[in-house]
Amino acid sequence: MNKKILVIEDEIQVCSNIEQILTLSDFNIITANNGLEGLRLAKAEKPDLICCDIMMPELDGYSVLESLRKDVETESIPVIFLTAKVERTDLRQAMELGADDYITKPFLPEELIKAIEIRLARIEKPDLIRQQYEQERQQNIKLKQQIQASSQKLEESQQLADMHNEVLQKLLQDLGNPLSNINMAIHMLKQTQSNSERDRYLAILQQECSREIELLNEIKNLQVLLTPENAKILQKFNLLNHHK
């Protein structure tokens, strides 16, 4: 988008010449032939930069600048003075009021264009820095969220692994009890002489084998049931230890 430049110049021919020069440099030009009209256009159009003559009837350039700087809507618009006055006191007054540059007449087109480009570049640079900062800030926020999500998943995976191990240890202990009874029953079965004792030990073997089968089935079911969501429920009701 072309930058909008407001030219305030009471000499019609000079104003027209400046308009042509800046238009050829791809600027969007608005013109005013007195200070009052220039102030009105500055507030209405919000130009990116103002080129303003100093010596004008009704409202001179100093008064225009002073009014611009007192209005929050126009206080930050850069102003370049164009004038034939070259006294040091004039320059000091312009700068004290907040002028951004000072070009004396007559001037070459290149001088004016360069002054405008330099001033606009100084405005755009902070904006670019702010944009880069905001982009980096958003990227850092996104990266932080990804790290937090990954850390949470890692923590949940570790908790789930610990819970699997805890339950497995308990099942291994439970598996050991029936096996001990089975071994004892087998040993006693070898020693028994009566049919009634043989039947009793066979019943023990059948009972303990059934227990082993049930425990093995529980281990298989754990692979499906012990999910992170179910593990949290088990923790909530103190059915599993909490792991940090």
Secondary structure layout plus pairing:
Blueprint: E1 4-8, H1 12-24, E2 28-32, H2 35-45, E3 49-53, H3 61-70, E4 79-83, H4 88-97, E5 101-104, H5 109-191, H6 195-225, H7 228-236
Parallel strand pairs: 1-2, 1-3, 3-4, 4-5
Helix pairs in contact: 2-3, 5-6
Describe this structure as you would to a colleague.
With about 240 residues, the protein is α/β, with parallel strands linked by helices. The protein folds into two domains: about 5-105, 3-Layer(aba) Sandwich (Rossmann fold), CATH 3.40.50.2300; about 150-235, Orthogonal Bundle (Helix Hairpins), CATH 1.10.287. Helices cover about 70% and strands about 10% of the residues. It contains seven helices and five strands; from the N terminus they run E-H-E-H-E-H-E-H-E-H-H-H. It has helices at about 10-25, 35-45, 60-70, 90-95, 110-190, 195-225, 230-235; strands at about 5-10, 30, 50-55, 80-85, 100-105. Strands 2-1-3-4-5 form a five-stranded parallel β-sheet, with helices on both faces. Helix 2 (about 35-45) packs parallel to helix 3 (about 60-70). It is rod-shaped and about 135 Å long. The model has no long low-confidence stretch (mean pLDDT about 80). Keywords: Coiled coil, DNA-binding, Phosphoprotein, Transcription, Transcription regulation. Its EC number is 2.7.13.3. InterPro entries: CheY-like_superfamily, HisK_dim/P_sf, Sig_transdc_resp-reg_receiver, WalR-like. It holds the Pfam family Response_reg. It catalyses: ATP + protein L-histidine = ADP + protein N-phospho-L-histidine.
